[in-house]
Fold this protein.
Amino acid sequence: MERDSIQYCIELALKKKKILDQSLFKYLARAALASIYISFILIVCLKLAELFRLQESPFASVAYPLVFATALIMIIYGGGELFTSNTMYFTFSTLDKKTSKMDLLKNWVACYSGNIIGAFIFAVIYLSTGLAKEFPADNFLAGVVDHKIHASFIHLFFKGLLCNWLVCLACFLPTRFKDDFAKIVLIFLLVFAFFFSGYEHSIANIAVFTLSYIMPHNVAFTFGDVLHNLIPVTFGNILGGSVGVGMAYYFLNNQKNSVRKKLKRVS
């Protein structure tokens, strides 16, 4: 049923591989764009959440994820390279033997690195605007960071798994639609679902930690605290995207072919 969507994802993975093979710099630039777009939207989310928080409105927890859904739309339509969605794309292409395991690892490492670079670039530029100093030390983002660094390893891992399961579905399911508006609505709803549910996205977290560091903050955190969050979340993201979507849909769409092959061998 979803074979056309799987084929689309495989072709997209091959395009990503070609870009990386031809120019590491261009690929890193595309990956940097993805986290820059995330950071752009995080600032909007934060300022909106601050408005509601100052009014002690419970809508603060809704406003934050409601706007963040825009980030993935920007990445998909803006040609950014996002590590989390690539866990699905390259799982499909590797299972179909169109790319190798080494291609998969090269892409994931390059994309993750580029995403980190982009978060730092945006943070430096935003710091230069002077706007970061306008936030209070107890800003909304500080509370988000406090929650992220004190969660347990196992909780972070499974939050990461559920997060990228939804994120990759937000990239995979819209390929079944031809209308861009329908695609955007579905992407929006699925990203809102993961963010509102409190799941963990490794690349978004990198942007959160970076932005929080350059702003006044009453929550002290170390590089060790950042790793405590990112390590389990990253591996959870990998499992959610590669197994929850990539392997699952590849298996579901190749099961009949496998049965036919076995029957032919028997006959």
